[in-house]
Amino acid sequence: MDKGKAEARIKDLREKINYHNKQYYVYDNPVISDAEYDKLMRELESLEREFPEFVTPDSPTQRVGGEPLPAFRQVTHRVPMMSLADAFDEGELKDFHRRVTEAVGQDVEYVVELKIDGLAISLTYENGLLITAATRGDGVVGEDVTQNIKTIKSVPLRLDFPEDKKPSIIEVRGEVYLPKEGFRKLNEEREDMELPLFANPRNAAAGSLRQLDPKITASRPLSTFMYALGHVEGVEFTKHIEVLEFYKTCGFRVNPDIVLFKNFNDVMDYCMSWREKRDTLPYEIDGIVIKVNSLEQQRILGFTAKSPRWAIAYKFPAEQKTTVINDIIVRV
Ligand code: NAD
């Protein structure tokens, strides 16, 4: 493609992606499938790689999520909430492992987790007490949903600290999601009331949490899995798996299918095994997340503008089924 054509296509793709980001992140109301969205994003990434002179800081390839809704009080995250780089096949997974081992120059252990299809949340506890809950927003500033989060039973309001680990401040991060059964019932009720249906459990979870009236959130069977650490004071961790063990002790829900691997071939086998098994879960997953276990190695690897270099999301191939989103029929 010549330079002029590439520039025009990049502009066109950015406009399209920005529009879909707003529908998805701000209004919880996507109009295309995730697979179609991922295709647009991949095309933009590849053109920007070929023509780096057109990369701008406001390109959707450089930014996380969407603007926070002004109706909510805004919360600035102490540590940014980032996105994840994607891998769509075994070749891209192997490239990730190669980049990681080259950068750290040592053996690497990986923690492998299900990628829960909900929305990210950051919970700040001061001396064990829940103070603030915020959505990811644009990664730097999120929405204050503290009152809504307090209606979710799996979120502890006060933490059970072990004797040897009592952080004065801790930002506990994870996913709020709606189980498949809750999603089915919610859409049935909405159909009876002639209200627009939610496109999928992810958007239903986001729409249920980002409510100005916490009573509405309380009426939805939302649940949580916690899987990441933001800012922490008063405690040192050296491994990601240690953080997850600590979360369990504190009273959080941590996904039972998280596994620690020393060998990358086992990581890949585990990813592939979930392609078939994913439908057996009572909640939706859209992939598998692979994270470097050592926090020191994570520090060496660092971040791009948008995502950590020490983690990757293996995305499952799109399922061939037909879905109706806002009266538009799409193949996903
Ligand atoms: P992402 O969803 O691919 O990955 C990051 C997110 O994964 C985190 O914010 C977190 O919420 C989630 N996650 C779930 N389990 C996790 C775990 N165990 N560890 C860490 N994170 C975990 O990235 P994104 O930037 O949030 O969104 C991009 C994706 O959203 C696209 O690939 C597309 O699928 C979808 N999207 C769709 C549309 C649309 O119009 N259909 C628009 C925008 C985005």
UniProtKB/TrEMBL annotation:
The keyword Transmembrane helix does not apply. This is DNA ligase. The gene is ligA. The keyword Ligase applies. NAD(+) binds at D34, A35, E36, Y37, D38, S83, L84, E113, R136, E175, K291, K315. Keywords: DNA damage, DNA repair, DNA replication, Ligase, Magnesium, Manganese, Metal-binding, NAD, Zinc. Belongs to the NAD-dependent DNA ligase family. LigA subfamily. One of its GO terms (cellular component) is cytosol. It comes from the Bacteria. GO terms for molecular function: DNA binding; DNA ligase (NAD+) activity; metal ion binding. Coiled coil: none annotated. GO terms for biological process: DNA repair; DNA replication. The active site is at K115 (n6-amp-lysine intermediate). DNA ligase that catalyzes the formation of phosphodiester linkages between 5'-phosphoryl and 3'-hydroxyl groups in double-stranded DNA using NAD as a coenzyme and as the energy source for the reaction. It is essential for DNA replication and repair of damaged DNA. Transmembrane segments: none annotated.
